[in-house]
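sry for the spam today, last one i promise. struct tokens for design, 160 residues
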């Protein structure tokens, strides 16, 4: 079994795999994770299909497909969620997606807004590179698990 690209630590077959095949995401965070996995796998049709109807007109499918091919996705960190549970109708997910493009390491940070319609979660919009309140970061040991959620040791992941 292959670990899911979303960093959940679960096998792809029981994590994002069923969602990419059409199953409804149970939470806004699950949809966010599956959208990251879809970008990493080049499944841009899934990204388009999980946009809320009002957001689809602004989605550049060809540009997203080109970008997906040109970057190497390195990992997803969920930094915060607000609502977005199975019984909610709306939610937000704050995340950081690490990638490399043209040999440079980069991070895409976003606060994404999601809405549930007829039992399915959809991406509504997002605030890219939001200004977040400062947070205290404690020193992480080289052999401790990486805080990004990848399941790897810090020295083999973000500390590399």
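last one done:
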């Amino acid at each position: 079994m292959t670990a899911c690209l979303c960093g959940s630590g679960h096998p792809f077959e029981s994590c994002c795999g069923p969602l990419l095949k059409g199953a409804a995401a149970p939470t806004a965070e699950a949809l966010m994770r599956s959208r990251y996995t879809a970008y990493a796998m080049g499944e841009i049709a899934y990204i388009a299909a999980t946009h809320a109807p009002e957001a689809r007109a602004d989605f550049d499918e060809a540009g997203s497909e080109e970008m997906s091919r040109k970057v190497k996705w390195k990992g997803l960190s969920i930094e915060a969620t607000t609502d977005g549970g199975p019984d909610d109708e709306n939610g937000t997910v704050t995340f950081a997606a690490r990638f490399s493009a043209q040999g440079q390491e980069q991070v895409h940070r976003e606060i994404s807004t999601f809405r549930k319609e007829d039992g399915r979660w959809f991406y509504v919009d997002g605030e890219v590179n939001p200004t977040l309140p400062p947070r205290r970061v404690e020193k992480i040991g080289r052999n401790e698990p990486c805080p990004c959620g990848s399941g790897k040791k810090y020295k083999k992941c973000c500390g590399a």
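The radius of gyration is 16 Å. ok im logging off now
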